[in-house]
Amino acid sequence: MMLNRLFGSLRTYATRANLSKLRNIGIIAHIDAGKTTTTERMLYYSGKINRIGDVDQGDTITDFLPQERARGITIQSAAISFNWQDNYKINLIDTPGHADFSFEVIRAVKVLDGCVTILDAVAGVEAQTEKVWKQSKNIPKICFINKMDREGAGYSRTVKELITKMRTKVALINMPLFKYDTKTQTNSFEGVIDLVNQKVLKWSAQDPDHVEVIEAIEAASEIKEQFLQGRESLVEALGEFDESLVEYFLDQAEGDYLKIPANLLNQSIRQATLHQHLTPVLCGASFKNIGVQPLLDAVVDYLPSPLDARIPEVNHDHLPMSQDPKVGVLINGNKNLCVAFAFKVITDPIRGTMIFIRVYSGTLNSNSTVYNCSRASKFKLGKLVLLHANVYEETPQLYPGEIGVLSGANVANNVSTGDTIVSHSVKKDGLKSLNKNTELTLRINPIAVPPPVFVVCVEPKTLGNKKAMEEALSLIVREDPSLVVSKDEETGQTLLGGMGELHLEIARDRLLNDLHAGVNIGKVMVSYKEAINESSQESTAENDSGCRFTLSVEPIPLDVPIEETIASDKSGSKWYPLGSDNNYLVVEPHETYKLDNWKLQVPYDSIINAILSSSIAALQKGGKVANFALHSCAVKLKGNWQVPLDMENVTEVLPLTRNLIMGMLDSLPSNDYSVLEPVMNLEVNIPQKDVGPVMQDLTGARKANILSIEDEHEMSETDDSLSSADFHKMAQQQYLPPDMTLKSARLGEIGISNKIIRALVPLREMVAYTNKIRSLTQGRGTFHIDYHGMDRVTQDRLESVINE
Q1: Does a structural domain hold residue 673?
Q2: For residue 201, what pLDDT is reported?
Q3: CA-CA distance, 327 to 330, in Å (whole number)?
Q4: Cα–Cα distance for residue pair 731/161, rounded to 1 Å
Q5: pLDDT class for 17, splitting at 50, 70, 90?
Q6: Which of 184, 245, 383, 655 is paired with 96 by a 20 to 30 Å CA distance?
Q7: What CATH number does residue 248 fall under?
Q8: Average pLDDT in the 453-473 region?
Q9: Angle between helices 127-135 and 155-166 in degrees, nearest 10
């Protein structure tokens, strides 16, 4: 029975899924922790593939792009579905680990219910792992400590780092099993000690399908002792959250940790994981095919189904929403309402535009008429597709909780990343039966797109290439909204902005090699913006047909999180984001036309969308210092605007409001504009002896603002009830098996810890910093940067920035 459970079984997935047996999960980690290798083994053991691909050989299933196979890294998130034991279905998204592709993680996390975090047993908890952990902070996780077969692997050291750096309690599900080789006098990793099922599992080096299972209580004395202490620690950790487990332990188990059945422990671990009280931890070596089946068991045992997952946030604050076992998220009490969210766009060479969606509520039918709430427009769907990396399987329906793909000519111009789609679950064209004021205006909160920090100039090789260049740029931006195309109004140059140098390098490859665009691409530059220092005068524009709008433009504070700025607005206004430059359209409640009694022929959303477009165009025109696009501006629309009752479209609204905004900006004097530059959060991890030279370089050449210097194990305080010291103490008290690497671990209590310098630094000054930090620390120092925000360029640096 244990073997059947471990290896699962491949069965035909039912036409309509049992929501409780569906798992939408993502694989997240630092680059090179083994995400794709682990995914490949999951597919093999589930029976999805009959041979195991290799990242180094460039033949993995989920890394199918030529750039991914050439570099051996994941660039875009890839989704695939497979079955596991007892007819569970797992929709898995393998995400990139490189910081330049963090938007891929952001949009994957948006639609996931649970995550598997993979840690490198040699490197421990790395910088990008911390970042993606924070990005997925509201999602239950399990951890898999990979590469236990490598020299220098440290299970116990990595668990300690997990507790202190991620500020999480842990539940050890299994622990590493080593075999001592008397000839080489070394330990080799050969399996795991399963604390829940009380087994010792040994994998064969010759046969990836063979596993030897023995009772842990009958194992060698050293292994048995580790098992007994590990199980006791597991039960006590769960007892902090589960009173029923404590009662069972005292009454029915008579105080014997071994008498608690596995199913009861699994129930307890599941509930603690769903409520994020703790993180289950497993270990293995994916490349050696060790420990992957228990990881798959943990996915179905501990991670949430769509019924357990958080309900998505929507634009209607008081709309009733609940979980229903048949329709998924029941919205507005309407069991016939289907709601889906578009989170990714790709272009397939054969099928054309493909839109990845997550169905949250109801059933989506192929060839049915749907309504895009984000664009206030309806269109007819083509075929629906289930995803298997770059292989697609057509399906007549997508059911609640499913992740699938929209295909067909109609979707290309009707759906973008972040759009919300609604339809009738039964009728092919049942939109008329949906509530026009709630269900047809429902929008799942969009994906936050990080702003570009680097730009390159893109020019057509000849005038004849210009149209092809614009089409190619439009295509790659549609696929990846974290790429931004803009135009320098002064020079007429087209600029492409991205998250980092590698991000733009991949975009360059895509333009030249995949799309064969005839373009020249310049060197990488920092992306600068401008901001207004003062508000414009409120101004009104009207035309002969009866359109009348009153607007103003105001600066948004740079030093206050935008969430706080929006929360402090008590006017009842709606804030609509204008792209990725922290610009917003702020719409006051309308004084005349109430949304619940709308009398105009043209929809309210169409008018607002027109003003959104005109605001973006006006702000992109740039400021008066160096014509950089404007940043952190609030275009405020007064609630007394009016349009004719019989107006049929919004063609008059666009130029009227655009010219009004541009006129207000032109009226501001030049000294009311400032140049902004991207500022990065910098974290440098260095030996203590190198602190002096690194600090001198940061404060001098890099113009950095030092925030703190801490020991490596220290974490900044948060609003949690537990402090950093509490988690450090927890790591000390947690039972862990013997680990030779703990002797050299830098965890504060052993030896001299590394120092971590945290600072804010202008991105411009971080060019070529990799070589500098290696030189200053003899190759021992590492650093990590991510976007903090925009800040005003100081007067002494302004001229050099403009010249650049």
Answers
A1: no
A2: 96
A3: 6
A4: 8
A5: low
A6: 383
A7: 3.40.50.300
A8: 87
A9: 50
Q: Are residues 616 and 656 in the same domain?
A: yes
SS3 sequence of 551-586? EEEEECCCCCCHHHHHHCCCCCCEEEECCCCCCEEE
CA 322, CA 520: separation in Å to the nearest integer?
53
Domain identity same for 461 and 366: no
Residue in this structure with the two tokens 């076992």, named with its chain if needed: 325
In terms of domains, do 612 and 682 share one?
A: no
Q: Are 784 and 129 in contact (CB under 8 A)?
A: no
DSSP-assigned beta bridge partners for residue 682? 759, 785
Q: Is the Cβ–Cβ distance between 761 and 680 less than 8 Å?
A: yes
| Residue of 55 and 115 predicted with greater confidence | 115
Q: Tell me the three state secondary structure of residue 213.
A: strand
Q: Give me the CATH number covering residue 506.
A: 3.30.70.870
Task: Give the pLDDT confidence score for residue 744 in this predicted structure.
Answer: 54
Distance CA 743, CA 729 (A): 18
pLDDT digits (tens, 9 = 90+) for 72-90: 444 456 678 889 987 899 9
The number of distinct structural domains making up the chain is: 5
Arithmetic mean of pLDDT over the chain: 85
Specify the amino acid at residue 205. Answer: A
Q: Say if residues 193 and 227 touch (Cβ distance below 8 Å).
A: yes
Handedness of CA 197, 199, 200, 204 (dihedral sign): negative
Domain match, 143 and 95 both: yes
- β-bridge partners, 643: none
Annotated binding site: 29-36, 94-98, 146-149
The domain boundary, picked from 667, 693, 722, lies at 667
Model confidence at 114: pLDDT above 90: yes
441 is a domain residue: no
Asked if 494 and 459 count as a contact pair (C-beta separation under 8 A), the reply is yes
Check which CATH number belongs to the domain holding 399 and give it. 2.40.30.10
Instruction: Decide if 309 is inside a domain.
Output: no
Burial status of residue 316 (CB atoms within 10 A of its CB: 0-12, 13-18, 19 or more): middle
Q: Are 552 and 535 in contact (CB under 8 A)?
A: yes
Radius of gyration of the chain (CA): 28
Whole-angstrom distance, CA of residue 260 vs CA of residue 196: 9
The reported pTM is 0.75
Looking at the fold, whether 724 and 793 belong to one and the same domain comes out as yes
Q: Give 496 or 173, the one with higher predicted confidence.
A: 173
Give residue 216's Cα distance to chain centre. Answer: 39
379 touches 370 (CB < 8 A): yes
Tokens of 658: 């655009």
Is the pLDDT at 568 greater than 80? The verdict is yes
Least confident range from 326-330, 426-430, 465-469, 717-721: namely: 717-721
Which structural domain range is residue 385 located in? 321-433
What digits encode the pLDDT tens for the residues 261-305? 999 999 999 999 999 999 999 999 999 999 999 999 999 999 999
Least confident of 21-30, 308-317, 362-371, 794-803: 794-803
Are 650 and 728 in a shared domain?
no
Q: How far apart are CA 137 and CA 112, in angstroms?
A: 12
Among 207, 225, 199, smallest CA distance to 297 is for 199
pLDDT mean over 184-197: 88
Q: Is residue 264 part of a domain?
A: yes
The tokens describing 204, both together, are: 């064969």
Separation between Cα atoms, residue 298 and residue 697, nearest integer Å: 47
**CA 147 centroid distance within chain:** 24
Same-domain check for residues 274 and 384: no
The encoded tokens of residue 137 equal 């902070």
Distance of alpha carbon 15 from the chain centroid:
30
Q: Which of these three, 243, 272, 302, is where a domain ends? A: 302
* Binding-site annotation, residues for GTP: 29-36, 94-98, 146-149
CA of 30: how far to CAs of 1, 97, 126, 696, in Å?
Answer: 36, 5, 6, 29
Whether residues 164 and 90 share a domain: the answer is yes
